[in-house]
Amino acid sequence: MPLPENELIMTSQTIKSYRQLVARRFFWALFTASGLAIIIIIDILVGPAFLNVFDVLASLVLPKASVDPMVYVIVHSIRLPMTLMAILVGASLGIAGAQMQTILGNPLASPYTLGFSAAAGFGAAVVILFGLQLPLIPEFTVPVAAFLTASLACALVYGFAHVRGITSEIMILAGIATLFLFQSLQSLIQYLAAPEVLQEIVFWLFGSMLKATWFSVSVSGGILLISILLLARDSWKLTALRLGDERARSLGINVPRLRLKIFIIVSFLTAGAVAFVGTIGFVGLVAPHIARMLVGEDQRLFMPVSGIMGAIVMVGASIASKVISPGAVVPIGIVTAIVGVPFLFALILTGKKRHW
Amino acid sequence: MLNVTGLTVKYGSLSVITDLAFSLEPGSFTALLGANGTGKSSLLKGIAGVIPASGGVSLQDRKNLQPHQRGDSIAYMPQDTGATSSLTVIEVILLGRLRSLGMQVPRSLENEAISILSGFGLGALETRTLEEISGGQRQLVYLAQSLFRNPDILLLDEPTAALDLRHQLIVLDRVSSHCRKNGTIAIAAMHDLSLAAKCADRLICMSDGKIVADGKPTEVLSVSLIRDLYGVEADLVTGSNGILHITPLNAVELEKTVSPV
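Output (structure tokens, whole complex):
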């Protein structure tokens, strides 16, 4: 049956404003991606050795033989791994936070607030305190321990939820209990540690990109890539979860199974990010909120923009950590909130809509 | 044809629906009546498979649909319109066809969603988020989403509870015409008896998790049934168009348990 004329006019107007909305969101996605590209270059430029932008760009795009060897070594062996690690850690934590907030239906959920980062910190602190070392690969002892304890925290939260029901309330409660447990254990270890060991533990807990190597970049990058591919397959189901459990179930989604699957992916994503660089707390909470303000909650854009925003905050923090104290690098975990909070407040104060 | 057999719903050890059985014809619109807590919502959720229920739900030649298979053919609209998010109205409608959605949404699907929205008078709201619209508008959006799914069975839990008088009539007219046109079977839990008598082909009345009356509105509704179901004295008048008008007068004590049919 053809639509009446006034309904046809309304429909064409509606289609027009819908297309404008889609275009606006794509613009924000491209804008944030371009912003990230610019600050990546700035981060590589900033450091004790003064490099100019042309040398940096040349060493990134030209063959090794045609670039100043010293510039090439500084860019490829020192600055690029640190910058890439900042991007990967920021993107991993941003996406992990976005999915935590989605599956738990809570704006305060993040890998940090559910205790995964604290667990990683505890694992690192234990091996530093007791001087434990893995055979053959001693330099990876701390990351492996951090990865394992972050995974243990995930198993703890999941085990508790499995017994009591995989609901968002139970998982948040179990996550907060896990956070306090591992923070207490961390404090206990710091209390017991000798001053020089304590200094080493505290430095790890602050989080630093100085620990980045091409190996850590490969591992974190691999985990991030696999996680994105797995999450993208469920992007519409995750979007539907924002309508509440009952409505998602009525759309044919097995909500507990989806929640469990995403929870496990997020755990690996977080563990892969914090194991190499230390406890970084603020990014996973704030990046999804900024992304939500810019592109809404359709996961096709929300997830990538959360990752981009996480990377922007981390790379921005990396620049700040080098600028604050010339000649030294302040641990990045200290400055992430200093960089991110003003940005978030500005968006909240200038935004017209509420987003949660 | 929808066949429900031996449907039982329990919350822990408490049985709220016991061994219910009925069949519904394609294209029919059935109103589910009964006082609060008599198991109407649980019956709808049990059929939809969103809560654990024993018994069978079969549809035409598809015998005993398992709960995870029901999302393809059954659209269930919960009573609660409170869940809010920053999803836009158009995204909510599109989610109705979850299985057809990929990284790229076909233009034809977007246009169909927009057309359904315009049909409900919601065209101007499509880029607003759920948080930015009223409870009644959210109810219309969820109803539009249910119709967008083009299901075999449409289960509506108090679909007009948050709507004004005009939209109550528009919504129920659209649902019944959608059913007739597409052969969809609709069941709606309702509290407005006059509206149910006007719009539904059949009434199923529930008390204590059992069916106590079942049939056409003019055959089923009576002063004594309303008193037994709701504990309310009411006037029943048949209008010139043959439709029953029910006016509640005053509340009385519920005296007896109604016998199942």
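The longest strand of chain B covers residues 14-24.
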